[in-house]
Amino acid sequence: MQLPVLLHLPWRPPRLERGPIRLNARRLYILPTRSGLVFAMLLLGLLIGAINYGLSLAYLFTFWFAGLGVIGMLHTQRNLSGLTIRAKASPAVFAGEDARLLLEAENPAGPRRYRIGLAHPSGASRECDVPVGGKAELALVLTGCKRGWQPLGRFTLYSRHPLGLFRCWTVLELAGPDSAPHGVLIYPAPARDSLPLPAPDGADRQAKASQADGDDFTGLRGYQAGDPPRRIAWKAAARSQHLLTKQFNEPSVAPSGSRLRLDWSRTPENDTEARLSRLTRWALDAYAAGLAFELVLPSHSVNMGGGEAHLRHCLEALALYGQANGQA
Amino acid sequence: MARLDLNTPLVWLIAPLALVLAPHAFELPLWISLSWMGFAVAGLRSANRRQAWPRWLKLSLTLAGVAGVLLQYGTVIGSQGGVALLVFLSGAKLLETQTARDRLGLLFVGCFLLVAYFLNSQSMAMAGYMTIAAIALVAAMIANAQPAPDPRASLGLAIRLLLQALPLALLLFVLFPRLQGPLWGLPQQTAAKTGLSDRMSPGDFSQLSLSDEIAFRADFASQAPDPSALYWRGPVLWDFDGRTWQTRQAPPAHPVRGEGRGKSVSYAITLEAHRQHWLFLLGLPKPLPPRLERLETSLSPDLQWLAKAPVSQRLRYVIDADLEYRLDPDSLDAASRARSLTLPEGNPQARELANRWRATAKDTRAIVDRALAHFRDEAFFYTLNPPPLGGDSIDAFLFRTRRGFCEHYASAFVFLMRAADIPARVVTGYQGGELNPLGNYWIVRQRDAHAWAEVWLAGAGWTRIDPTAAVAPNRVELGLNAALPANERRAGLMTLEANWLMPMRLTWDLLNNQWNQWVLGYNQERQRQFLARLNPFLATWQGMAWGLAAAGGGLLLLMAVLILPRLAPRKTDPASRLYARFCKRLRQRGIVRGAAEGPADFAARAAALRPVLAERIWLITRLYLALRYGLRQDRAEVDTLARLKRLVGEFRP
User: Fold this and answer.
1) Can you tell me the mean pLDDT for B126-141?
2) Can B374 be counted among the known catalytic residues?
3) d(Cα B573, Cα B628) in Å, to the nearest integer?
């Protein structure tokens, strides 16, 4: 017997809410677990034994265990009741990576909360405690996310503390924080192979060709998603614990006045997702190379720029290309 | 051998289970306890090495356990074999508990075995011990699911949970309807217990007199009779083989022919489970209940009250009886007469003595008196350590050793009476007891076991004669210890009785008695009595059901209120309070916010009315709206709130 992860009364479906949500009795469901049912059977057996053998102490202890179950149920509900739940900004990731959706449980009043778990149709979190007057972060790891906004969707917050005989839960649908109200943003996966960047407008092919190997090593920096594999300093990485990417002080390939345009129409692929992957790869390469670039999509374009904010802006545009809430 | 790492979840399983099983170990064959300990150690070792035991090994161990229990008990179900098998399997399961759910299941088995132990003992001390074991089990349930359990916190929570569950448990205990009669067969307990038996040989009673074990307790509804009248009647012994008295076959059944002659008493006896058939009586009972709880009973013509099955549980019965009575007063049937005159061969000296008395006495009563005078006047001694008698035991006692305990005197007296052609028989039971003044009831112990004689006298019927009283009157007046020679008095008992420990001992017995009466003896009858005293309606099925529903529901509600946090509505938030102050300031200037007017509309109106303040009004309104309906970023919120507070504070329309 496995209950659905998101079980709620059919006539009271959870609404999409902006946090924070304070859990109260109206939001909480509680049912015995499988162990709880086994415990009930045990009590029934003990009661029959007590009746048969006429043992007063057997009656007394059977009733004591029964009372324990009932009191345990109240404690299970207490463990969730009064918690305040809010969504936290979740860092954007590339499609194919594991997305971490973050929630925060705050315990404004009441005792320490034990083993609060988060369940979702596509994954579950580690159970964690919420100290008195403190907060705890619950992370839901989702795999195989598609490009665009990955909403948190409906999720279940549950607890079986203290005895494991009952499971108390609530089903919520929570909008993200104002900075990312739709959940976590999934950028397109960067194309695996690294094609050379498109020739900048007005630059001669010769200069572009030299770009591939005309490099001047300047140092290492931490690996960032999308860095081309050939730039990874494998030997250095083997020594340290993290992947490191070689940085080059590349001569500005584009002569002044030329513009590096990452243009939808100039990608070699013809499938939408493949094109977006290609553009993502180029944007990352261009950023890694310290180049300024502009992004041109059929519906939308991002003006010339450079640096991290510009990159993020471009990645967002790519992530949301063609989606209903695209122009966020 | 590698050291065992005790920091595994298995320890949280082994410790409470061991606590539950320790008392079982005294009841179970040794091999089961030893295997269990072996399993525990093996389980810990494999948990340390993170290796599993091979499947075939576990399977064959399980089968070996089943076979062993079958060999030992002949069955694997029932209250003995079943428990033994469960104990064995709970050990074997220690080898393969991986998941939290497995462990929880095993803790449930622990709960079952905890309750099952009450088949063996329900003493107050055992209830206390099992409470501790229950705390350990519950703490283990709590710790079981936690990745890094804190023993102190788990134990603390377990105690709290059990304390909170106690009122519910007590309510259920009192109100849950008790059912009568077993649902299936009760176990046959054959283990011997110290106590009276249906045979009496020299030395039996002096053995019994060493035991302080309680036989029964008795409380009198009215004034208790004098201790010397407390002859608690048990087995009646008819047949003598020269050494041992017994009743080879019960006398033919017919109603007791007796008549009460006054001094009626009413008393309740709480009989410990002695695993024998007889139920002790004082005096001639008025009609007796045919059933006691689950036992069918019958009263035999020689005034023995017998249960059809051995008394395997503590039993309480209330009797109305006449202390003075006549039994078979008018005539003795021929069979009984012949039986109560039969003597085996031997003991010529005793026969000769009896014949001499018979020849000289004018009636039977005189012969009886003559015999008692003989015991009183000749040099007979009352002692716990009589010398061995050898063949012709009666002669040896009467003419050679002259030292004996009650069974010697009763046996010799009945022999003499029969030899003098007076129908006589031996009656055994208990005499006297210890009054517990705290609870005003009598404690009758094994050491109060006694044997006396009954002779049949024409006109008077069966008459009780206690030859021991002739030798040692103190035995009957003051109890065993006072009657014994000083060097035989029991040292432990003496000091106990003499010093301040005695009130403690009596208090302890009083507690035990209350425990027996009210906790262990809380059966259908007692429940109805008790509930009827509260309210007659409660003593019915419907009453109990309603009472349980109402009181249980109320108690649950109360517990819920106590346990669940009170989610007070959020205090009006500070932003609203500041905005209210802002509105109040404007109102003082005649600018009143309408009931349905939104803050923005109100701000527009107020700004139009007070153009000088327009900028401030808008700023405050914007901040307020941001706080109430806008972003909720904690840090920013605090700053915005501070700003709003300052602005409202400075706002002077």
Assistant:
1) 96
2) no
3) 9
pTM of the model: 0.71
The pair of structure tokens assigned to B285 is: 């009972």
What's the complex ipTM?
0.77
Q: What are phi and psi of A262, to 5 degrees?
A: -95, 100
DSSP one-letter code for B253: P
Take residue B117 and report the two structure tokens written for it. 């132990």
Tell whether B86 lies on the interface with A, counting CB pairs under 8 A. Answer: no
Report chain B residues whose CB lies below 8 A from the CB of A30. none
pLDDT along chain A (328 residues), means of 10: 77 81 90 95 94 90 96 94 88 87 86 88 81 88 84 88 93 82 86 78 47 54 69 69 64 54 84 89 88 86 86 90 61
β-sheet bridge partners, residue B217: B270, B443
Portions of chain A given CATH number 2.60.40.10: 16-186
- The reported pLDDT for the residue numbered B434 is 86
Q: Concatenated DSSP letters for B519-555?
A: IIT--HHHHHHHHHHH-GGGGSHHHHHHHHHHHHHHH
Nearest to A57 among B122, B523, B633 (CB): B122
Q: Which two tokens stand for residue B261?
A: 């002659």
pLDDT at B90 over 60: yes
Say whether B277 is catalytic: no
Q: Is the bond preceding residue B227 a cis peptide, omega within 30 degrees?
A: no
CATH of span A16-186: 2.60.40.10
Distance from CA of B439 to the nearest CA of A (A): 22
Sign of the C-alpha dihedral computed for residues B623, B624, B625 and B629 taken in this order: positive
Specify the amino acid at residue B369: D
Residue that is written with structure tokens 């979190």 in the block: A125
* Dist CA B134 CA B139 (whole Å): 8
Q: Are B86 and B135 in contact (CB under 8 A)?
A: no
- DSSP three-state, residue B504: helix
For A79-90, the pLDDT digits (tens) are 999 899 988 888
Active site residue B634: no
